[in-house]
Design a protein that fits this description.
By secondary structure, this protein is an alpha+beta fold. It has a domain at 4-78: RRM (RNA recognition motif) domain (Alpha-Beta Plaits). Helix content is 16%, strand content 24%. It is built from two helices and six strands; from the N terminus they run E-H-E-E-H-E-E-E. It starts with a strand and ends in a 46-residue tail after the last strand. The model has no long low-confidence stretch (mean pLDDT 83).
Length: 124
C-alpha cells in the first residue's frame, strides 16, 4: 500500500488542519489537503493525506474507513494515481466527427457536404 490516502465523504466544513489532526492519531502526517473548488473556495468533500510510512497508512485505513465523522461515514483508502487526461474539454468539446454522422465540416448535410449549403464554403 502507498503512503498517500484518499479521504472521502468529508463534511464541507472540515479543513486541511482538521484532516491532519484526525489522521495524526494513526501516525506521522507528512501532508494533508482538503480539495476545494477553484471558483468558490468551498470544500469538495474529499482530501488527500500522506503518511510517513505504509504501515501508518494501513493503520489509518483500518481505523477510519467507514467511521462516522460529523454525521458522515468516511471513505478512507489508498489514493489512486490520477488518470492521464485524454482529449475532451476545452473549446471544441473534443471528439470531432467521431459521433456517427453529423459533426465535422458539413458532414451529414443534404448529401454529405454537397448541396443544401453545407460543405466548407460557409467557413469563408
Amino acid at each position: 500500500m502507498g503512503k498517500k490516502l484518499y479521504i472521502g465523504n468529508l463534511s464541507y466544513d472540515v479543513t486541511s488542519s482538521d484532516l491532519e489532526t484526525m489522521l495524526s492519531a494513526h501516525g506521522t502526517v507528512q501532508s494533508a489537503e482538503v480539495i476545494t473548488d477553484r471558483a468558490t473556495g468551498r470544500s469538495k468533500g474529499f482530501g488527500f493525506v500522506e503518511m510517513d510510512s505504509d504501515e501508518e497508512a494501513r493503520a489509518a485505513v483500518a481505523a477510519l474507513d467507514g467511521q462516522d465523522h460529523g454525521g458522515r461515514a468516511l471513505t478512507v483508502n489508498e489514493a489512486k494515481p490520477r488518470a492521464p487526461r485524454t482529449g475532451g474539454g476545452g473549446y471544441g468539446g473534443g471528439g470531432r466527427g467521431g459521433s456517427g454522422g453529423g459533426g465535422g465540416y458539413g458532414g451529414g448535410r443534404g448529401g454529405g457536404g454537397g448541396g443544401g449549403g453545407g460543405g466548407r464554403r460557409d467557413r469563408y
